[in-house]
Amino acid sequence: MKKLLVYLKNYKKECVLAPLFKMLEASFELVVPLVVSAIIDVGIAAKDSGYILRMCLVMVALGLIGLVCSVTAQYFAAKAAAGFGTKVRHQLFAHIQTFSFSEIDQAGTATLITRMTSDINQVQSGVNMVLRLFLRSPFIVFGAMVMAFTIDTKAALIFVVTIPLLSFVVFGVMAVSIPLYRKVQERLDKVLGITRENLSGARVIRAFHKEEEEKSRFEEGLENLTSMQNYVGKISAFLNPVTYVVINGATIVLLYTGAVQVDLGNLTQGEVVALVNYMSQILVELIKLANLIITITKAYACGNRVSTILEMKSSMPVNLTRTQDVSGTQAIENVPMVQFSHVGLTYQKAGAESLSEVDFTVQKGETVGIIGGTGSGKTSLVHLIPRFYDVTRGEVLIQGKNVKDYPLEELRQKVGIVMQKAVLFQGTIRENLCWGNAAATEEELYQALETAQAKEVVEGKEGKLDALVEQGGKNFSGGQRQRLTIARALVRKPDILILDDSASALDYATDARLRKAIRQMDGSPTVFIVSQRTSSIQHADKIIVLEDGQVAGMGTHQKLLEKCRVYREIYESQFKKQ
Predict the structure, then answer these.
(1) Per-residue pLDDT, 323
(2) Are residues 257 and 349 in the same domain?
(3) Domain boundary among 276, 311, 346
(4) Residue 319 reports pLDDT greater than 80
(5) In a domain, 322, yes or no
(6) How far apart (Å, rounded) are the C-alpha atoms in residues 286 and 74?
(7) Are residues 337 and 306 in the same domain?
(8) Residue 210 counted as domain residue
(9) Segments forming the whole domain that contains residue 245
(10) What is the mean pLDDT of residues 220-235?
(11) Which residues have CB under 8 Å from 255's CB, separation 6+?
(12) pLDDT > 50? residue 326
């Protein structure tokens, strides 16, 4: 949490002025009981209505000045807190963008979103509350006690006893309840998790007729949450009656002592009223301080969660400079476009390698098919080319140069990839396609759409390229989303095109037209096609068959049918053996 405070350095003035104005407000508040005392002892005792009116105007003036100070303090505190939250959020977002897939897998997407939103909001709220109240409440408490001593020493001793007793009750209850509130939050997270699962998997639940079981699971989670909240609520509810018993007991003692002192002529009736007012102020401020500390505790915990992400180092730092000039390498003939040299990949905290001894070369313009069973490492293999993950053994070369030696921006410009899950962003079709190339002309966009077999999709929409795309592309079918994401990759005109099972929703005829159009593209890109269908890759120049992360076979369709058992089994499972 302390490391986050550096983002307040541009708000030093606000961090000083906010508590300063709050303490000014508190000073005026401490003067009010003295004014009341004067009204009783002088104005009412002498029946001087003019004096009473003047002192009432003084109270109104003190209230207005306090209001101005309070609003000013709130302005500076809000400015500092909002600016702090904005800077932390921007820094966290920028830092997450440097993460490789390994760090994102390790942290978890849901956790990153939570820390970007609710955690930072909680920290921002904590900063705001600290600037406004952290000095004000102690100032009022001890200020009231000091003011009591200026009125009467004997009566002030009651404050000396009451303040520690109240503090013990308030902070004792808080110390017990804070850990329990954390447990409440954990149980709430479980309920939210069940809710999210039920909403995202509603169709599966209905398909398997599991509605009653899910209702029971949800109700069980709610019961656990409710029981814990009731338990914490009872402890927290203990705070108010006890504090009011203490404060009312102290007030009774104060009134008794004050009455005795009034009879003896040592105190006036107005001074007794002032002492009671100071006692009330102490009660209110101690309750505020307890709530403030709970807020600070939550903010501190959330700040530590945010700091954990900011301290996480990327395993793939962005190279800002080239390590070598590849222009000469590119001029050499027959240098492979892509080369895997004894590559091994082990995911973080994995017990074994996901890829082992992968070794092959691909020339410019070749089409490579990659096939294998579920979990064989197909996606892992192609993710090494744009360096979404780094190899843990061996090396991956593009045009004779290790991918680690490329600046990430240059490397990613060479590669166009279409992921397994087709993702479209809210906006227009044009805006989505221009992710591939922001400077693309309308002609280039339509050319990419035609190659991706998506031109009819666009022309069928009102507004064509400017047709709206809902979040996640929900207003398009699965096949339409896949074709549009392929078009987005083609707009970039990459040297290497990776289609990671990105035509699974397309019918065989459209899939065949797509592959034919890609082969006829200008520039002859090197194409990697990951697919479960042998029909999608059987015309590739080279087919790589994976089994348990190892290359089980490599060659053309006919060669693999003759010599590769794994490929033959996949083929025969899709086409009945003649």
Answers:
(1) 44
(2) no
(3) 311
(4) no
(5) no
(6) 20
(7) no
(8) yes
(9) 10-311
(10) 87
(11) 272, 276
(12) no
Handedness of CA 370, 373, 377, 378 (dihedral sign): positive
CA angle, residues 461, 467, 472, in degrees to nearest 5? 105
Confidence grade of residue 318 (pLDDT, cut at 50, 70, 90): low
Is residue 5 in some structural domain?
A: no
Same domain, 305 and 391: no
Q: How many angstroms separate the CA atoms of 246 and 243, rounded?
A: 5
For residues 175 and 232, state if they share a domain.
yes
- Would you say residue 330 has pLDDT above 50? no
Kindly write down the DSSP assignment for every residue of 80-107, as one continuous string.
Answer: HHHHHHHHHHHHHHHHHHT--HHHHHHH
C-beta neighbour count of 557 within 10 angstroms: 17
**Higher pLDDT among residues 372 and 326, named by residue:** 372
- 515: domain CATH number is 3.40.50.300
Buried b (16+ CB within 10 A) or exposed e, 175-184: eebeebbeeb
pLDDT at 79: 92
Instruction: Find, among 435, 347, 432, 336, the residue nearest to 392 by Cα.
Output: 347
DSSP H helical ranges for 152-268: 153-200, 202-207, 211-237, 239-264
Same domain, yes or no: 460 and 502: yes
Q: Are residues 194 and 301 in the same domain?
A: yes
Q: pLDDT at position 223, please? A: 92
What are 33-72's pLDDT values in tens digits?
Answer: 888 888 888 888 888 888 889 989 998 999 899 899 989 9
Alpha-carbon distance of 423 to 449, in angstroms, equals 16
> What tokens appear for 76 in the block?
């500076």
Cα angle at 349 between 344 and 350, to 5 degrees? 50
Residue 508 inside a domain? The answer is: yes
Cβ atoms of 377 and 455 within 8 Å: the answer is no
> Is 529:499 a contact under the CB 8 Å cutoff?
yes
- Last residue within a domain, chosen from 251, 276, 311: 311
Q: Specify the higher pLDDT residue, 503 or 476.
A: 476
Q: Please state the pTM of the whole predicted model.
A: 0.70
Domain tally, the chain = 2
Token output for 39 = 């009204």
CATH of the domain at 70: 1.20.1560.10
Q: Which residue has the higher pLDDT, 143 or 333?
A: 143
pLDDT-derived band at 281 (thresholds 50, 70, 90) equals confident
Query: Tokens standing for 529?
Result: 């096609």
Phi and psi angles of residue 109, each rounded to the nearest 5 degrees, phi first: -60, -45
CA atoms within 13 A of residue 447's CA, in its CB half-sphere: 12
CB within 8 A of 17, min separation 6: which ones?
72, 73, 76
Mean pLDDT over 405-419 rounds to 86
Residue 376 backbone phi and psi in degrees, to 5: -80, -15
Distance from C-alpha of 460 to C-alpha of 450, rounded to nearest angstrom: 14
- Position 220 scores a pLDDT of 92
pLDDT digits (tens, 9 = 90+) for 116-141: 887 888 888 888 888 888 888 888 88
